[in-house]
Amino acid sequence: MYNKKITTLLASALALTSTVGAAAIPGFTFDKRYLARRDLKVGLGTRYGGDCHEEDCWQQGACSFVDYTLPSSIDGSTCVSQDIWDSGAQCGGCISVTYKGKTIIVMVTNKTGGDSNHLDMTPDTWAKLTNGYSGGGVDGIQWDFITCPIPQTDPLVIRMHGGASRWWLAATVENARLRTTSLEFSADEGATWLPTTRGDANMFVAGATVNTDVAWVRVTSEDNTQVLVKNVTLKSGGGSAPGGGSAPGGGSAPGGGSAPGGGSAPGGGSAPGGGNAPGGSNGGKGGSCPAKRHA
């Protein structure tokens, strides 16, 4: 009898804990694709076939990063396979990669061929991982997606692309701590939100226009964290403006708002230069990592 009461009470407590735990994250939707990506642990590591230096290797490439400098806490960059490209959903995500006991942190900045486990790194990044190995590829690198080690107090950057305006809203998120899943614009200070569609070049493009040259931008990351960036200039050369707001749990700084999922880099906006049509990649190279590798 005594044991039966204890068992009943324990079962009730466990049921209550389960109910409370579920209620703590209302509206949370688990992304099964994220689990699949986390299973991609071991594969081929290669380096770019050219002799470019870090940022020069991938500026205006498939992730549409323009005049972007890697945060000092990140060791280098890599391309991921077309198999897991997912319209650029991995862009800006960070990966912990290990080879022969050496571990570095890299950011996804471009795409390549090969199977889903393949990482293709810049020559500078490759040298850091392999301690200067001169060959172009090795089997058996181990890797996994991680949260980018960017301070939560640093601002998220919204970069408007060449040719962008109130009539063509096209933006890319830079310096996020987690990968971005969606971006929305608001021309009425958050009363209503205009969704966007992510193109293959990691560019979020709205299907409608707004009646203002400055708007708020709301960014949602892979864990459903949201960041609000206020006063984004909607034109070529515009983007995050000083004094932007922050999402709950984060701090703000010149350049935009931050929260878990945010990050920073010097400056906001987009680089002056070639305009583009919807679906383009800022009039840049728009390319993948070079197909050729050094032998």
From TrEMBL:
It comes from Cercospora zeae-maydis SCOH1-5. It comes from the Eukaryota. Residues 236-287 have a biased composition (Gly residues). Residues 1-22 form the signal peptide. CDD domains: DPBB_EXP_N-like (cd22271). The lineage of its organism: Eukaryota, Fungi, Dikarya, Ascomycota, Pezizomycotina. Residues 234-295 are annotated as: Disordered. This is Carbohydrate-binding module family 63 protein. SUPFAM superfamilies: Barwin-like endoglucanases.
